[in-house]
Each structure stands twice: as structure tokens, then as C-alpha cells.
Write a structure and sequence with these properties.
The chain is mostly helical and 261 residues long. It has helices at 17-39, 81-94, 99-126, 145-150, 161-164, 177-197, 209-233; strands at residues 47-51, 58-62. A two-stranded antiparallel ribbon has the order 1-2.
Length: 261
Amino acid sequence: DGFLGSIVAESVLAQDARDAKLKVSRAVMVSLDDWSADLDVPLYIEQIETLDLKTGGSYTDIRGPYHEAKLHSREPKPLTPDFLLHAGLYREALNSNSRRYQFLCFYKIIEAVHSRRNRLAAEAKLRQQSRRTPSERVPKDEGDFIPWLNSFFPFRPVWNSQSLSPIFLPEALGKKFHRIVDDYLRPLRNGVAHSVLDEGELTLSPDDPLDDYKVSRWLPLTKCIVRRMMKNEFPSEFLPDLNEDGSFRTPTKVPPDATSS
């Protein structure tokens, strides 16, 4: 019918599957950028299949849709404007089809929580009070991976090696959040943001597949860091009925004759 369904590169000389995917992606992006700008329609890659012609091995990358989830709590809870600013940006990230924009939104939440903590600490100091900042780090031992995730994902998939390995990157295990941000996330954020925010003429491609690979690699853990920080920062608003062991608190029963104003 004249619509684009798939693009096939029949043979590519490459060192491995990742190298082949990078080479083809860079070539394909030229056409996708041109068509998207010309037709004024978004174009993003939903699935990539790589076949090793020598060994017969195949690899598939899929951008799957989000799962359906039922509301787990209907009890009223306080929702402050401060929390809603962070929750609104989190939803903005989930609604985006761009991994880079998702990463920038998540990173902004991390920055915002740090700034909020500094402000509250300064205000407490003026009142001659102390404010304790939670110690936040990625677990090091495999036995702690699933309990850590269950503490801030109310409805979770069946955790297995395929779902855990993209989250728990070797260089992040056992490290505190601020160290991961300084060493990995901030340099990545600067590289992505500079491609669209720097002054002057364009010098970096906003869809370089190598940069996209870096973002995709760190995105799952960045999202988990955000959820852990939001739960620590807004305990009465973000997942207040989810215990640290992953269980749910018993809902408070409201008397039948209770009225609200």
C-alpha cells in the first residue's frame, strides 16, 4: 500500500552482531531522518533482527509495549505540589517513544531530588535542626537484586536473568547512587543534551546509534534509581502502602457510617 514496513540489509561485513547493528543503523538513520522531516511523521524502530550468516545465530531487539496494571490502592493519600512535579515528569518519560528523552526526564528527576534535599537541609540548619539523607546504593549480591526491585515495583514481572541483567550492570554493583551519577549518568546526560541544547551549528547527530546504545544500556538502572529515590523522598505519597520487603500494608478500614467533608 506504499507504507514502510521493514528495511532489510542483506549482507554486512562486521566483527559481530553488535557491530553489524551499529553499521546498518547508521545507514538506515539517514533515510529515516529524511523521510520523517519530509513527511512530518515520527519514525522509530520497533524491532531489530540480526542474523549471523556464518554461524546461523540470530539476535532480536524489541521495544515492547507497557504491560497493563490494576490500581493497587484506592485509599486517599496526600499529594503535594512538590511530589506532583516529580510524578508529572516521570509520566512524561513513560509517555515518550524516545529513549533519549526518557533518560533526560529521569536524570532531571534525580537532579531535582538532590536539589530538594539540599534545600531542605539548608532550611533545617537555619532552624538548628539536622536532616538525615538516606544511604542509597545499588545492591552488590545477586540475592539482593529481586528484594531491592520489589521494594519499589508494586506489580512486577517474573524476575529472571534476562530481566535482571539489563538493570544490574557490572560497573554499578555495590555503588552509591551519587557515584553512579557522577561517573556514568552525568557524562551521558551531557552528551545527549549537548546534541540538541548547545548553541551554534549542529555538530552531533541526535540519533547516532552508538549514543543510543549507551542510553539504552543505562536507562533501566536509571529508572530504578529514580523510583528508589522518589520512594525515599516522598514516603507518604509514592507507594506508601508498599513495604520494603515487597508486601502490601493492610488497607485501613473505614467505618460504614464515616462521612467526609
